[in-house]
Design goal:
Blueprint lengths: L2 H16 L4 E10 L5 E9 L6 H17 L5 E7 L8 H5 L1
Parallel strand pairs: 2-3
Antiparallel strand pairs: 1-2
C-alpha cells in the first residue's frame, strides 16, 4: 500500500478512536528499521491532552489488523506529537 492509502486508513481509525483526546492529523512515512526491514511509521498529532496508553495500543492494533487484511505485512510504529513538542520533520522543512 502507498503512504497515502495508509494515511487515509490511519486517519479514519484514529479519528474514530482518539478524537476525544484532541486528535488532529496523521503523517505516514515508509522507512527502514535498524536492521533494514521496511516499516510503516504513523505519526499522530494531537491538539490537546494526552492519550491513555491502552487507547493507543488498541488504535495501533486496529490499524495493523486492517493493514494485514489488505495484504500489508510491514510492522507499524505509532508515534504521538503534542503541542509545543518539536516534530521529527522540523529540521527537514528548514532545508
Amino acid at each position: 500500500m502507498t503512504d497515502g492509502e495508509i494515511n487515509e486508513l490511519a486517519t479514519r481509525i484514529l479519528r474514530d478512536r482518539l478524537n476525544q483526546f484532541g486528535f488532529a492529523q496523521v503523517r505516514v512515512k515508509s522507512e527502514l528499521d535498524f536492521d533494514g526491514t521496511p516499516i510503516i511509521r504513523v505519526i499522530a498529532r494531537y491538539e490537546n491532552g494526552r492519550v491513555p496508553t491502552d487507547k493507543l495500543i488498541d488504535s495501533l492494533d486496529d490499524i495493523r489488523t486492517e493493514l494485514i487484511q489488505r495484504g500489508e505485512d510491514r510492522f507499524v510504529f505509532l508515534d504521538s506529537e503534542y503541542p509545543g513538542q518539536a516534530t521529527e520533520g522540523d529540521d527537514d522543512e528548514e532545508e
